[in-house]
Amino acid sequence: MLIxxxxxxxxxxxxxxxxxxxxxxNDFKRFKSxxxxxxxxxxxxxxxxxxxxxxxxxxIVITRQKDYHPEGCIVxxxxxxxxxxxxxxxxxxxxxxxxxxxxxxPYADQLExxxxxxxxxxxxxxxxxxxxxxxxxxxxxxxxxxxxLYSYTYQTYVKK
Length: 160
Known about the structure:
By secondary structure, the protein is of the alpha/beta class. The chain has a single domain (2-159), classed as Dihydrofolate Reductase, subunit A. 19% of the residues lie in helices and 35% in strands. The protein has helices spanning 25-35, 44-48, 79-85, 98-104; strands at residues 2-9, 13-15, 39-43, 58-62, 73-76, 92-96, 110-116, 124-125, 134-142, 152-159. The strands form two sheets. It has an eight-stranded mixed beta sheet, sandwiched between helices. A two-stranded antiparallel sheet has the order 2-8. The protein starts with a strand and ends with a strand.
């Protein structure tokens, strides 16, 4: 199974200047619990936004740069090659950024979205989720609290 996982604002914003524009500690915990032990597919800029590789995950980085070889990563030049590396009988995740989500959407079986209930200025965006192709099967609202400046909703979609 191939799952796309993303935190997405009301205007489909993902981030600006290769950084998230919000901080949701519970979403980070959810991301970690879902992706640990699995292959994660990302673009070069997303990988470079991490201070170090994420522990206990196999990193597959998509880039057009021929001489790009970060330690501990598998580097490929297409979404198709990235998906081909993932074990067929296991769950793998596409984790961003915007271009990779757009390329990966046709291949995804499921979407794990954290919908941040605010609009942000951004330069990276998640593609539109077409209700003709995706069915929402789970939703859980989370209000603003002392650690979260924005309310947010966990949403799970499966391909129709």
